[in-house]
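Sharing a chain and its predicted structure for anyone who wants a worked example. Both blocks are below, sequence first, tokens second.
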Amino acid sequence: MRRRELLGFFGSGPLAMVALGSAATGEDLPPKTRIEMVASKDPRTSCFEQCENLAKLCLIITDQLLDDLKAGRKDAESIARLHRALADSREFCSLVVTMVIRDSPFRAPSCVACAEVCDRCAKIAGSTTFDHKDQVVEQFKECAAICREVARLQ
């Protein structure tokens, strides 16, 4: 099976990477091909990785925001708004990961939508005070940029 078929069969989680073994690392390829893979990374791979990492980050930050709400911070409304935005962003990022892995014909529109969601979440996150704010805003901007790049690919 090719890597794309394996990813479609096993899914995109960490266990899938273990199950893929050498197919994910390129170990079954000749040495010259492995070097070329490292030298020129496909934007779709970058998009997949960035969206997957952002989805994980959103999950972590939403849990922290719930702790902040539980502690009774004064700006509860902005924290709740950011929590909802991060939860939605996580869903969009997960969708893009699926579309990119499958090389779906709907990959481009899903990447455009994800980029828009990431831009909006970056603005909401920028206007809210929470731990690791700068890192989260930067991750959203990077994800939006790579999603736009992948959306332009045909």
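Comments welcome. Residues 13-26 have pLDDT under 50 and may be disordered.
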